[in-house]
Specification:
Elements lengths: L1 H48 L3 H10 L4 H5 L10 H13 L5 H48 L1
């Protein structure tokens, strides 16, 4: 009976790890989509509203869906890769440091980089999520078989 309970706990834990990895990938995709949307809104605010950098940051912090990204502009976002965090940090560092045309063109460049990452993740998301879940369950079953 104790072996059965232990085996069930191992399968559940390994499956949980697989489902966690799949959820992390989904969260990364949604965060990148929000980041691209945020950069687009910043570009629009710069181009049409002629807002200052401080006004843009205040506007983003009041927008509930972009508040998390705007507040973490000086730190890293846990679900993003190091490259993506560096990309956002570079954008925040250059924001307000040059003329309007340069800022708009750099915003376009950062949006294009994020869109490229988003399309890569979308292409492989379904297969990777299925792989993570399946490997979690199968590795738990394999460990149970080896212990029994």
């Amino acid at each position: 009976m104790i072996k059965l309970i232990g085996a069930a706990a191992i399968v559940i834990a390994a499956s949980g790890i697989g489902f966690y990895k799949a959820r992390c990938l989904e969260k990364r995709l949604s965060t990148l989509v929000k980041a691209a949307r945020m950069l687009g809104e910043i570009k629009i605010a710069l181009n049409y509203s002629l807002m200052t950098t401080e006004d843009i940051i205040t506007f983003l912090e009041t927008n509930s869906s972009l508040k998390q990204l705007a507040e973490q502009r000086n730190g890293s976002i846990s679900c993003l890769s190091e490259r993506e965090n560096q990309l956002l940090a570079d954008f925040w560092a250059q924001l307000g440091s040059s003329d309007l045309e340069s800022q708009l063109s750099s915003a376009d460049m950062y949006i294009a980089e994020l869109e490229e990452d988003i399309s890569e993740i979308r292409e492989s998301k379904e297969a990777k999520c299925r792989l993570y879940r399946t490997m979690g369950i199968l590795s738990g079953l394999f460990i149970c078989i080896m212990l029994i």
